[in-house]
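Follow-up to my post from last week.
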Amino acid sequence: MKRVAFWMVTFVILFVFVFPISWVYLTSIKGKADIYTLEFSKQFIFSPTLYNFIHLFYKTPFFQEITSTFIVAVASTVLVMLVALPAAYSFARFNTGYGHLLFITISTRMFPAAVAAIPFFFAFKALGLLDTHFGLTMLYLYFNVSFAVFLLFGFFREIPVELEHAAMIDGYGQLAILRRIIFPLIKPGAAITAVFCLVFAWNEFLFAFLFTRLHAKPLSVGLSNFWATIEIQWGPMSAGAALAILPTLTAAWFMQRYIIRGLTFGAVKG
Amino acid sequence: MLGQGDEVRAETLPTELLGGKAFWETLTSERYFKWLLITPLLLVLAIFMFYPLFYCLYYSAHQFAMPRPPKFIGLDNFRAVLQDVNFWQALGRSFYLLVISIAVELILAMGIALLFNREFKAQNVIRGLCLLPLLISPLAMSMIWNYILHYDLGLANHVLATIGFSKVNWWTPKMALYTIAAMSIWQWTPFSIFVLLAGLRSLPKDAFEAAKVDGATPWYTFRRLTLPMLMPMIMIIILLRTMWLIRLFDPLYGTTHGGVGTETFDWMVYRVAFVFFDVGTGSTLAIISLFLTLIICALLFRVLMKSLGAAE
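User reply:
Got it. Predicted complex:
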């Protein structure tokens, strides 16, 4: 009896969390008539069509948008890792700045987006960086770096210092320690951090919306354009959303074990 | 380890002969190396933190509506904003949204975390599926909700009509803020669930066994043992969710565009600065937003540290 109750509640919970997502995919293969239907049964019983995807591919700059998203997400993640890896190591191993610097780094994450967005809008305008991949990449570097430093800080702290001491006694220099000892051990943590940065950059909307128009417009902004048209095109919009969330759903598989640690900046070991 | 001394000498000898190498050696000595490693981060912070902060403060002291050049007016912007009814309403809405979202999320998540805090069939798959809302682009999701909650076409009203209720208009001025809250609750409850689950799993088992032996009721155990020990986790959730909810923007963009009584503080900053191009007022609002966030987070951080100290 107790078990039946448990599974019923669990099923309801799963349904609430998963169903809206599956509805995206269901809507994306519906024809226009089945989307604009007033009959309840037709919401579930319909003949699937690829019309929405064809519309998305041929009538909207979908491929340009997804390329932009991909370029910016990957480039910003690489930059973030190049900056964050050495810094996090320095914080974790040498306690550089006695915690104050680390705190300042984390506090950038509390900044409201507008604080950065307003001044940078003018700076980018003057420098001709509006609507460029480079400009958006730099913004995402800002957006992700504090988070990455803190998450990596936690991973570096888990590497026992004794290993490094032992290596030093064996005559390794700082660089050799980094290359031979630290680098192999930090690889999994670095990979997790990178996946997080990729997902955050992939999903980011506000900066992209304010700083791009046509050329560097990423997927999130492209999706929002379906809103701006007079009649909302639910079909192609769902098709776009279905494809846009696919990579993050895949990433979820790799992040599962670390997601809570990632989102709480390493404060909770999930 | 007999050959150890020889090895060290073999490595240090050539560096004494080559000037360039000696420079490199100093640079990688611990004293300089730690700063060398951190230099890129300091550069990024200087550019992306102090530069915008400086300019935001600068603009906030100027009358600066886009086409015209900025004109210094001191604190007049702050005075005007504090006298603006819209500002207080938006702030009130943000705060209201904050309180109801976090309260509902915590209650739901606590229930689900307690339910999932056991071994059951396919537990990893089920927990994994519950994580999905966290990773989906909030913007894409808000547009989906807009469709599901559409008055005539949306699934929600179809279902309500089928089981005999009257249709609900989810976007009236009275309802809309709650609808937005519900969307945010749907997306972020999994976060609270998993933080609380992690907390539950790290609790010491013997205290609970002792309580059981003493014949404590489940409710008593929960109130006197589980809840106090989970306090740090709850504070972390409140702290982070506060930070995120103050910056609620995407769900509004996909649905109401700040209309029908849903203009939150962050949306107001966006509207003033980027729709009206009143940069002076926009910067003033941004500074106020930053200030409020820092105060709230500092307060919560204090409580968090206290509860962490109490838990240990």
